[in-house]
Design goal:
mainly beta, elongated
């Protein structure tokens, strides 16, 4: 019962952290941050290794993400990747980013992620599309890897 309560607290804390990171929230003195338009589109065409691959603690992995994107109102932007576990939080200090020079297209990006020795919970990978100047986005694809 106590371990379940602690796990729930960790889950809530990490979820709150993810929301803050993705939303760019941070005491802006009442000024609202620009938000990516909801009509932007992002599809992860493929990811390697496949999400069915079991990753191992204390290892490194290069995630190769092929994504198709469309900005509704921008001529360029960026693709961002954040990897985290609910038990330990983010596995990288800042989201990894790839610049996108067109308003639509397909891109392949390689993101290097270190898996900590104590990682025993799933790794959640958030791939997000941002137009220029946006600090928050609703255009996110979440993928998950098992770690054993």
């Amino acid at each position: 019962m106590i371990s379940r309560c602690l796990a729930d607290r960790r889950y809530l804390a990490v979820t709150a952290l993810c929301v803050l990171l993705l939303c760019g929230c941070g005491g802006g003195g009442g000024n609202s941050s620009p938000v990516a338009p909801k009509s932007d589109q992002l599809t992860v065409v493929s990811i390697s290794p496949a999400t069915s691959t079991i990753l191992h603690p204390d290892s490194q992995v290069d995630l190769i993400v092929r994504a198709r994107y469309h900005f509704a109102t921008a001529s360029s932007g960026k693709l961002s990747l954040l990897a985290l576990t609910f038990a330990q939080g983010p596995l990288i200090s800042f989201p990894l980013e790839t610049a996108l020079s067109d308003n639509e297209g397909e891109t392949t990006s390689v993101f290097h992620v270190d898996i900590p020795p104590a990682a025993g919970s799933p790794i959640h990978v958030l791939v997000t599309l941002f137009p220029p100047g946006a600090t928050r986005s609703d255009t996110t694809v979440e993928l998950q890897y098992i770690v054993r």
